[in-house]
Each structure stands twice: as C-alpha cells, then as structure tokens.
C-alpha cells in the first residue's frame, strides 16, 4: 500500500510568463511546481526529536535516560 499526505500534494502549473522563463532558463509552457518549504532550526529539531523519543519510550513503559539526546535504558 502506498499513500501520500494531502499536504504534500501540489498542483502542476505552467510557466506562462516570458520573463520568468528567461530568468530560469526554461521555455514558456514548461511545467511548474510551487511549494513553500519550512525549515526549522537545529535546536527546534533536537527538541522535537527528544520529545518524540520520550513519548515513544513512555508509551512502551520503558524507563530511559538520555545521553546526547539518545534514549538509553535506565537500569538503576
């Protein structure tokens, strides 16, 4: 089974502006996909990874501590 998140589906348009075509070195009529990517900071990504890891470990009833943001079994 294969699926795609609805938020990742974009419409395919056409380059119909001569100036835009010239700017990007393409012919008018060339297919055009426009998508705005949102980038997060390294710190925000680290916090999200840590939060999701803690959530996953807790949901499994595992007692862990984090070393360098990696979950390690807490055997003490």
As a percent range, the share of helical residues equals 25-40%
Rg over CA atoms, rounded to whole Å, is 22 Å
Strand order of the largest sheet: 1-2
Shape verdict? elongated
Distance between the termini: 43 Å
Determine the number of helices (DSSP H or I, runs of at least 4 residues). 2
What structural category characterises the helix and strand content?
A: alpha+beta
Mean pLDDT: 89
Question: What is the N-to-C order of secondary-structure elements (H for helix, E for strand)?
Answer: EHEHEE
Largest sheet data? 2 strands, antiparallel
Task: Write up this protein.
This protein has two helices and four strands. It has 76 residues and is an alpha+beta fold. The chain folds into two domains: 10-39, no CATH class; 40-76, no CATH class. The longest helix has 18 residues, at 42-59.
Summary of the model, kept short:
The chain has 76 residues and is an alpha+beta fold. The chain folds into 2 domains: 10-39, no CATH class; 40-76, no CATH class. It has helices spanning 18-24, 42-59, and strands at residues 12-14, 31-33, 64-67, 70-73.
Question: What topology does this entry show?
Answer:
Elements: E1 12-14, H1 18-24, E2 31-33, H2 42-59, E3 64-67, E4 70-73
Antiparallel strand pairs: 1-2, 3-4
Keywords:
two-stranded antiparallel sheet; 2 domains; 2 helices; alpha+beta
